[in-house]
Amino acid sequence: MPEPEVEALVAELSVKYPLFATTTIQRWVRRECARYAEARITTFVPILVRRGVERTLRELDTIQVIDLTAPNLSPVH
Questions:
Q1: Cβ pair 19, 61 in contact under 8 A
Q2: Rounded distance, CA 74 to CA 56, Å?
Q3: Buried b (16+ CB within 10 A) or exposed e, 7-35
Q4: What is the rounded CA–CA span in Å between residue 47 and residue 30?
Q5: What is the pLDDT of residues 18-57, one digit of tens each?
Q6: C-alpha neighbours within 13 Å on the C-beta side of residue 53
Q7: pLDDT at 62
Q8: CA-CA distance, 22 to 31, in Å (whole number)?
Q9: Rounded to whole angstroms, how far apart are CA atoms 59 and 52?
Q10: For residues 8 and 77, which has the higher predicted lDDT (pLDDT)?
Q11: Could you tell me which residues come within 8 angstroms of residue 16 by beta carbon, excluding any fewer than 6 positions away?
Q12: CB 20 within 8 A of CB 64
């Protein structure tokens, strides 16, 4: 993916997922781009990169945090 496209995607995803640092999103975009570095057909690479990174961001954004110090939690036997 050309650098201007990478930067535009990072900027767009940073606005859409403000929970994540821009550098983190950039790292995921670059990692996803690397998966397609040897692709012979590159027409759909930007779409595939976007889908892959968004899937990761959505999954991480919906993870719920559990307070392990809450009194109503007990160890599972």
A1: yes
A2: 31
A3: eebbeebbeebeebeeeebbebbeebbee
A4: 14
A5: 999 999 999 999 999 999 999 999 999 999 999 999 999 9
A6: 29
A7: 79
A8: 14
A9: 11
A10: 8
A11: 57
A12: no
For 64, the token pair is 């719920």
DSSP string, 18-60: TTS-HHHHHHHHHHHHHHTTT-S--TTHHHHHHHHHHHHHHHH
Look up residue 57 and give its two tokens.
Answer: 């961001």
The pLDDT value recorded for residue 65 is 58
* Structural tokens at position 5: 């496209």
**Which amino acid, one-letter code, is at 13?**
L
What's the pLDDT band for 70 if we cut at 50, 70, 90? low
